[in-house]
Write a structure and sequence with these properties.
It is built from two helices and ten strands; from the N terminus they run E-E-E-H-E-E-E-E-H-E-E-E. By secondary structure, it is an alpha+beta fold. It has a domain of 100 residues: 2-Layer Sandwich (Alpha-Beta Plaits), CATH 3.30.70.120. Strand 1 and strand 2 form a beta hairpin. The longest helix has 12 residues.
Length: 143
């Protein structure tokens, strides 16, 4: 840890101006609660869901390739005459931060774009966002 750096362990928000690594960092208090939507879905639906998220006015998203199993418990493939069991299916995880007021619209848009009607369409998890930090400037947004 660099000299002069401090670790603050507290459930309270730090004061509006915090000196960190020789720079003044400002805090911005936002009056609207934010939510993180974690979407686990089929890889072939990414473009449709991205377009739906753009229409829902979400500022950005993160996409990660993941593997997992749910109710399907994998699937069986045939290769060179032999049967292979694949317990983990390829999926995509999208993470989107939206305002609480737009959560229902964003969730409905994602569901409509990602749904095929078959087992394995995916899940959406909704999590609260307490604060965020801009790495370049050190600014923090308190929600």
């Amino acid at each position: 840890m660099p000299a002069g750096a401090h670790i603050i362990v507290s459930s309270e928000a730090p004061p509006p101006e915090v000196s960190s690594f020789g720079r003044v960092v400002r805090s911005v208090r936002r009056e609207r609660p934010m939510r993180l939507l974690k979407v686990i879905m089929r890889p072939d639906k990414v473009d449709q869901v991205r377009d739906a998220i753009d229409l829902a006015l979400a500022p950005g998203l993160t996409v990660t390739d993941v593997r997992g199993q749910g109710a399907q418990k994998g699937h069986t493939t045939h290769y060179r005459g032999q049967e292979h069991q694949l317990p983990m299916l390829p999926r995509v995880e999208l993470e989107v931060v939206v305002a609480e007021q737009g959560r229902e619209a964003a969730t409905a848009s994602i569901i409509a774009a990602a749904r095929t009607g078959e087992v394995g369409d995916g899940r959406i998890y909704v999590l609260p966002v307490e604060r965020s930090y801009r790495i370049r400037t050190g600014e923090q947004d308190l929600f």
